[in-house]
Design brief:
7-stranded antiparallel sheet; 14 strands; alpha/beta; 12 helices; Rossmann fold; 2 domains; single chain
Amino acid sequence: MKVTQVVRRGGGTFRVSLRPVVIKGEKRYQGEMTDEGQTKVKNFDLEGARDGLEEMLAQTGPRELHLITAAGDLHVRVTKKGKALESRSGKMERVVDEQPAHDRVKKQPLTSFDSVALLKAIEIADADGRIKASMRGKYDQVNEFLKVIDAVVAEKPEKTLNIVDCGCGRAYLTLAVYFYLTNVRGFDVRVCGIDRKADVVATARKLAACLDVAEHVTFIEGDIADSDPSFEPDMVLSLHACDTATDEALARGIEWKCRYLLCVPCCQHELHKTLKEGGPMQAVLRHGILRERLADLLTDTFRATILRVLGFRVNVMEFVSAEATARNLLLKAEFCVKPGQQAAVSDYLELRDFWKVTPWLETRMARLMGKYLSRY
């Protein structure tokens, strides 16, 4: 069942709807309000839903109401003069979903729960809930990142998770992670997004408030290096943080003693500037595009190897197709082995000495890295 009221005013449309959902095994009622392109969502108990429905029906002026039920549809149009024009569908026998929206499991993470309000709020979907063509790449990236997170937490016995999203931007991933893990996985989740841009953080906070999750999804305006969440993080995320911001996200995750680090690097310039000309790789370094791609590859190799030295099991994987984004490598790391193992240290030193460079992440983690590198 779903009831929707649409009011057209000042050239715009105000839409409010109410329908039952199941969240964490509990029946609730989800209200969705869209005004001037901004969507707000709030979940109610039975009493709150009843009050909201009475308030909706008490409105005056021209408007349209649409009631959808398993047995049929009712449409009422109220004219400027207050006349109600009613139309009904024929008798129907719709199949009733015993696990409405929030509990359905489909192929994509963002279709395994009722994500329409979320996707409209973050402007990945249009007013009708369809994915915008211009946002298809971002939609695919978030889905694939959620699949990686899902695999990581699949065997986690505790249903709690504290997550920091470094360089969160407009909070596409930040909010999607919260809704997916709470609605599908049943986790008790707290998420903190960090970004240095004041306007971006202000927008993200407004989105969290509109989606009624501001208590659990918070945002900090500031540099990753100087910002700390109000909780002890279990996981650090970073999706396309530029250049050394990815290294900073990894460094902070290590300093916070996180178990999981999931980072998708973006543009990488630091190592590109320090690669030395000459030697057997001169033929590669002579060409700008080859030098750039080599620097990207080496940067991520150094990151993965440093994480191995520091006690992480690391997997470098392609997390989304190149059609969605050219920056499609993901570093997945879990702290679960003894730091400073000889094989990892030897691999790192041989790679570093061959290229005669000092990666930014080693400099950033100099105290901890020095503890292990000095042994060999």
